[in-house]
Amino acid sequence: MSTYNRMVSFAKPHLRDMGVAYFSMFMNSLLAGLPVAGLIIPFVDTVLAGKPIVIPHQEKIPPFIMDWVYQLNSWPRWKLLNWLIVCTVSVSFFRLVFEFLQSYFMNRVSQKVIRDLRNIVYQKIIYLPLSYFGKTQAGTLVSRITYDTGIVRDAISEGLT
Q1: CA of residue 70 relative to chain centroid, distance
Q2: Helix orientation angle between 77-126 and 15-32, rounded to the nearest 10 degrees
Q3: Given a cut of 90, is residue 98 above it in pLDDT?
Q4: Cβ distance 50 to 77 under 8 Å?
Q5: What is the DSSP letter of 127?
């Protein structure tokens, strides 16, 4: 747990970018959670078959939603089709935008954390005694700087998500 807390402490200076990533993740999940099929089927029935939109258990539905449904039922079929196309495309577009933003900002945070971590490791290596370099293989040092910090990057970009 202390290792995880230490890793998170490296991400703290980048909270703004993480906040944007988490907000984008939330919005993407919200848009992905829309019951698109459940919303589209009644509209398609109305457009193609001319059936009115019927909501079961109308007593449990707030009145403003029922007013909205009655208004939709009074629209011409072509107007409803246009509205359905615009809404479907808009939801898909914004979902992709939020997915991109989430990925972009989480990768940005992880790259900044890796930069900070590599700088710390580099500063530590610079001040090591010369005898340390005689005993340690060069591959071990390179592995610490590249591979181990890459594991931390993956833990931040995937683990915190």
Answers
A1: 36
A2: 150
A3: yes
A4: yes
A5: T
> What pTM does this model have?
0.72
Under DSSP, the state recorded for 60 is G
Q: Going by C-beta distance under 8 Å and a sequence separation of 6 or more, which residues neighbour residue 77?
A: 46, 47, 50
Q: What angle do CA 28, 32, 37 make, to 5 degrees?
A: 160
φ/ψ of residue 62, rounded to 5: -60, 145
Phi and psi at residue 51, to the nearest 5°: -75, 140
pLDDT digits (tens, 9 = 90+) for 105-148: 988 988 888 888 888 888 988 888 888 888 888 888 787 777 87
Q: Which two tokens stand for residue 86?
A: 């615009």
Residues 153 and 111: beta-carbon distance below 8 Å? yes
Cα separation, 45 vs 81, in Å, equals 11
Whole-angstrom distance, CA of residue 99 vs CA of residue 91: 12
Question: d(Cα 86, Cα 80) in Å, to the nearest integer?
Answer: 10
In the 8-state DSSP scheme, what is residue 59?
Answer: G
* Cα–Cα dist 24/1, whole Å: 27
Distance CA 112, CA 132 (A): 29
